[in-house]
Amino acid sequence: MSRPAGRSPVSRVVLHHHRAAAPRVTDRLLLPWDYTGGDPGNISIAVAAVDRCRSGASSQKLDESHGVRPPLEYVGWVRRSVDTVSAMTDWVQQAQDLTDEVLRPAAAEVDRAGKIPLSHFDALRDRGFYGLAFATKDPVNTLADVGEILISGCLATAFVWAQHHGTLLRMMMSRNNTLKARYLADLRSGAVTAGVSGSGYANPDNPVIVATETDDGYTITGQAPFVTGWGLVDTIGVTAFDTRAQKTVTFLMDATDGRGVHANRICLSAADASNTVELTFNGYEVPHASVIHVRMARRGGLSIADRAILRINGSLALGVARACLTEADRIGHPCPQLWETHTTIRTALNNAATGDGDIYNARAQASQFAVTAATYVATAAGSRSVTRGEPTERLVREAAFSAVCTTTPEIKSRILTAGTP
Question: 42-72: per-residue pLDDT in tens?
């Protein structure tokens, strides 16, 4: 099915398990699970930080490196059924299995070739990871834990997968019932995959993507510096700012070049296989039918939803640090103290997500720790760490990437002014 050039709504293309071609699909890379911009009261996600006790065990095993969990019926000081906690643990274990069996063994080749095998996305879809936010009563912690593990396996694959949830959650909250009925189920299943150009590019104080309302919808102009998954996902959820109405406009578009929109591939130092592009809008037309939502611009402090997103994005640095410590264990240089620090920082992030602590400071500590862990494993590995393609050489690049990607000005300021974690 074709669409008029330069227009959206997105063509409805249902992808089957066996397909001949790849599906079509941040300064600061965009937030993988960017804030949807809605009233926090409309967001049906529970923010419950899991209080994990510190563990000094030196191990890459899931339970040991995550620390010791509190009794099963208590998570985040809220009583929950054993079934709920077991379900969350199952998702974490499935992520670990996928990482061990599929992602980590292929990570070096993905980095070398700059291409993610379609089988990675098939595996994520077949195991239900595209609808993960809907599969648990504790989506924040589950997304955070699962994201960390998948990132530790293959940064590029997990980075593309992560973008999907920003658009999925936007669609879930949409009042455009026609668009929602058309895409939500397929987005949840992964039959249609998505990327996201987040609300950070529609900041009312300095918007880089601008929407101008017309009789038929909106005309979009501006430039999104970093959009991940171009050519790998089917759709992109884009947020622009309407300067006249002082509102954000979020819409769904095909992840393809067309009239009024052009993508320019960016070469990244790490996760280059994620097909990250600079996306330029020059009079791109969006009909009302493709608008996910229009909302008044929100200014001010952090909401619960903001904290949740900041927490989930912290899994990028924790995932890279996990990969470093796992590699250190593998080459015979385990470090119990660094595993303990890893657990402590995760606990601080979980607590800060609920308002108990400075979330920006916790994120800064996570970013610094990823670099510390990469330095440790690179030193332990010795001279091969300066040989292109070696795991430790790649991990040093990925640690630098994690220190920049998803970093807000507040996090950056704390990194630049703080000492070592």
Answer: 223 322 222 232 233 333 333 333 332 222 2
Nearest CA-CA partner of 151 in 381, 361, 318, 365: 318
Q: Which amino acid is at 5?
A: A
Task: Name the pTM for this structure.
Answer: 0.80
Q: Where are the domains of the chain?
A: 40-188, 194-296, 314-417
> Is 194-296 in the same CATH topology as 40-188?
no
Q: Which residues pair with 213 in a beta bridge?
A: 218
> What residues are paired with 194 via a beta bridge?
235
Within 187-323, strands assigned E span: 194-197, 209-213, 217-227, 235-242, 247-254, 261-265, 277-287, 291-296
Tokens of 300: 């001010």
Q: Superfamily for 194-296?
A: Butyryl-CoA Dehydrogenase, subunit A, domain 2 (2.40.110.10)
Beta-strand relationship, 235-242 and 194-197:
parallel
- Cα-Cα-Cα-Cα torsion 142, 144, 150, 152, nearest 10 degrees, comes to -140
Architecture of the CATH domain 40-188: Orthogonal Bundle (1.10)
Confidence of residue 419 (pLDDT cuts 50, 70, 90): low
**Dihedral, CA atoms, 403, 408, 410, 415, nearest 10 degrees?**
10
